[in-house]
Amino acid sequence: MLPSKNINMYIRAVEVNELFDEEGELINATYSFGNENIANLYRKAQYDALQDVADMMRGKKPLPPSVFPKKMRQAYEIIIGDNDSVMEYRKDRLTGHHDKDKGNAVEMNVSGLVFIRGGEPRSAITYEGVVTEALTAGTIDTNRIKIVGAEGYFYIDGDELFAASYGNINKWFKLSPKDGLTLNRLPVQWNSFDGREFIVDGIMRGSQVARLQQFNLDSFVPDNGRDMILTLEDYHRVYVLWDEYKGRFIDLSGTVRLTDDSTHIWRWVNVKIVELGSQNTVASVRLEAYKTFDNTITDWDLRIDLQTYFGVVPDYRKIRFYIEVNIQNAYGTNIAHFRVNEGEFNG
Fold it and tell me: Considering the chain, what percentage of its residues have pLDDT values greater than 90?
């Protein structure tokens, strides 16, 4: 009996047993107090714990349900908590059902095991395999898994993960330790952790600058240190692009305008991209040049589709392109200022 008042006492804790589940939650605890020698109690507790572990390893003592994984513990509690089952032993099988709901049943014989819920078979095990709506497993040791979907299928084996489309056998991807990731005719989108888009529809964002340099002859097309000055109606080379085929597209951008002393309000300026050697026109654009410095009017863009022109994906071959321009209907009284600001590879 403890004193009723005004007395302080020290009580020795000689044993503390706390039981935690797999998620670290305390689910049970016992505490023992007394005056027995702590060292003796500690040695006894160690011996008992080691003995329990040895018995579990030898199969003499079952594992406590609290140490099971969460899903296993839930399954265990469903089975142990079933107090309504009625089991019957027949000549050819073992059957069972719920006394209050005979639509919930189980049947087992040499050929297999079937679980029935609401009168409908839900899961079955036979010599051919397992058929079930849901399967939970810590490790599945197998050499092949097939997953069938509405638009395609997956195969997973020890060497690779392979997925293909039903509608187009040329659309597939493969992931393997040996070859890495291979995608064939599939759109790709890759976003970083902060939401930035690296790849959109298979085209990489973050372009590479194309190597451009001036290539004009002052006797035909002079320049003022920034712009090419166009007065002739014949095409003349004003820039050259020396680089490698390292992106699907080359995107060119620049400005064009008429000088204030031109006799007309606007004129056509024609631009074409010509391959060195073959003299083939790779791309072209017709621009309207006005008397203005408004960049919403003067700015222009041109996309060169290299993959369509060469007929193959980027293979890093050398490319040599001239940029040729003229001013249409100059009449000797109209002058256009033309400039390429930059060229970028994309895709």
Answer: 47
DSSP 209-278: E--EEE---TTTS-B-SSSEEE--SS-EEEEEEEEE--SSEEEEEEEEEE-TT-SSSEEEEEEEEEETTT
Q: For 116-169, give the DSSP string.
A: EETTEEEEEEETTEEEES----S----SEEEEE-SSEEEEEESS-EEEEESS-T
* 232 touches 221 (CB < 8 A): yes
| In contact, 266 and 328? CB cutoff 8 Å | no
pTM of the model: 0.49
Which whole-number Å values give the CA distances from 191 to 104, 183, 185, 204, in the listed order?
48, 17, 19, 11
Q: How confident is the model at residue 190 (pLDDT cuts 50, 70, 90)?
A: confident
In sequence order, what are the residues at sequence separation of 6 or more whose Cβ sits closer than 8 angstroms to the Cβ of residue 186?
171, 172, 173, 202
Hey, CA dihedral for 328, 329, 332, 338, is it positive or negative? negative
Under 8 Å between Cβ of 42 and 50: no
CATH of 208-346, one of 3.40.225, 2.30.230, 2.60.120, 3.30.70: 2.60.120
pLDDT value at 262 more than 80:
yes
- Cβ(238)–Cβ(328) below 8 Å: no
H or E element, residue 296 = helix 295-298
**All structural domains of the chain with their residue ranges:** 13-66, 85-132, 144-186, 208-346
